[in-house]
Amino acid sequence: MANNNSETERKLWDAADEFRANSNLRSSEYSTPVLGLIFLRYADHKFTIAEKELKGKGSGRRAIGKEDYQSKGVMYLPPNARFFSLSKIWEGA
Question: In this protein, which residues make up the domain named N6 adenine-specific DNA methyltransferase N-terminal (predicted)?
């Protein structure tokens, strides 16, 4: 588990370095996208925990949906908005 956290931390620092060095953003401006990535990672972590708890609780008549996640106090994240999906886009850039 420590490796996963250190990998995420490395990616976030790399993103911050990229914003600082290769953008026209002022230091007061690049904090917004970096903090957004940190928040997304946190939301994705909470979503993953809720997803594991909800797995298998759907019935044949009703699938697990956005409301189920919200009832657990978790922000629903569609697959294309998950941290993993966005990090693949970032790695490909």
Answer: 9-87
pTM of the prediction?
0.66
Q: Say yes or no: domain 2-92 is CATH 1.25.40.890.
A: no
Q: Any idea where the domains of the chain sit in the sequence?
A: 2-92
Q: What is the 3-state secondary structure (H, E, C) of the chain?
A: CHHHHHHHHHHHHHHHHHHHHHCCCCHHHHHHHHHHHHHHHHHHHHHHHHHHHHCCCCCCCCCCCHHHHHHCCCCCCCHHHCHHHHHHHHHHC
